[in-house]
Amino acid sequence: MSRDDEAQEIALDVNGTKRCAVAEPRTTLADFLRDHLGLTGTHLGCEHGVCGACTVLLDSHSVRSCLLFAVQTEGATVTTIEGLSEVNAELHPIQQAFSAQHGLQCGFCTPGFIVSVAELLAEDPDPSESTIQSWLSGNLCRCTGYQNIVKAVRTAAELTHPKAGPGRG
Amino acid sequence: MKPPRFRYFAADSTAHAVELLGEYGDEAKLLAGGQSVVPLLNFRLVAPAVLIDINRITELDHVRVDGITTRVGALVRQRTIERDQELRRRGPMLTETVGLIGHVAIRNRGTVGGALAHADPAGEWPALGLLLGACFRIVGPRGRRTVPVDEFFRGFLTTAIEPDELLEEVELRLPSPGAGHAFVEVARRHGDFALVGVGAVVELDSRCRIAHIAIALIGVASTAVRAGDAERVLRGELPSTELVKSAAEAAAAGLDPVDDIHASGTYRRRIAGVLTRRALYTALARAGWERRDVA
Asked: Which domains does chain B have, with CATH numbers?
């Protein structure tokens, strides 16, 4: 436990690897991941919890990494977009589905969307269109449009859980 | 933007948090889910010298349903309430209303105690507190005390909690099994703060008269408010379309909401009437009222 505002060592599990770096208490988890650990897949849009671009999983639950301080995640398990598939390996089925359905254009918001979808499919492997829509209401996309993103989530559900039937409304 | 510098302390028990509050009270802010305070820090609208993180205090993370009383620890996440099967089974008022708060990633972090202590005038929890006769257990260097809901909300973002105190738990009286409830809102986008919201709890007696009624509105004043005039119109009466309309008019007439960038005061007052009517129709139907005037 810190008793100071000075930089301190923070150790946590990121994408299955124990990582350790020194940061001030005021460093958000998003900045810690990007600037201290070099994981720039987590994007920062609004920095006040509205856009969802910085969404990561904290102990398997989606959170805004701009609304959390790195020091709070000491000992926790964090999954970022980089943790979904290995470098140079096949993309994660959710990433494949976004690619196949044109669920991204500029791609800025995509890491946040994909991480949110990862939590959704872990909780509900066969989500309805309305479930997908309300689940993703916390992620803003300003160019692709949401139709293809919703389609991509359905495709991802079918890829990851073959039992998830196509065309559920 | 980035937050200003602060000293950070992670409390590992309520006693530890109280000790830290005793030392730093006036210059400290508590950090629970952080979904309101961290945006304020990032915007540098607040700059406390000290942040006391209460996220590791497991004793504040409990939901206990005991007969008609439900006790919710201050650190319970909104998502925990939303997914609690016992609360869902017990009558889904909390389940449904909490689902209106923000988005999943916000509800995964945001806490019940944080929402009540922050007391946003458009927040759902202050209205739930008013509707469910909340009692607030507060602890600080001078000991523990209990504050009833009618003394808790003091004004815009202000409650009875002193700067060196901590909200430990809120006690709620959930609607009885035969009661009907509703919580309806108008927001610009799904998950946004409501422009206006109305919650209602109704209970009918064996002769179908309104035995219990509570109506609370959000987004129309500096705090959540009870619609006392509307409740008086309804109490003891036989429900009817005309009665609901009169109650909705009474609810709106008692309000003087201010204009802001999101909506004019006139619009908010009008919507308050419409939403009161809708909330009452839903709550009455759930309480067993059969509306006979609609085809």
From this structure: 7-53 (3.30.43.10), 58-173 (3.30.465.10), 180-286 (3.30.390.50)
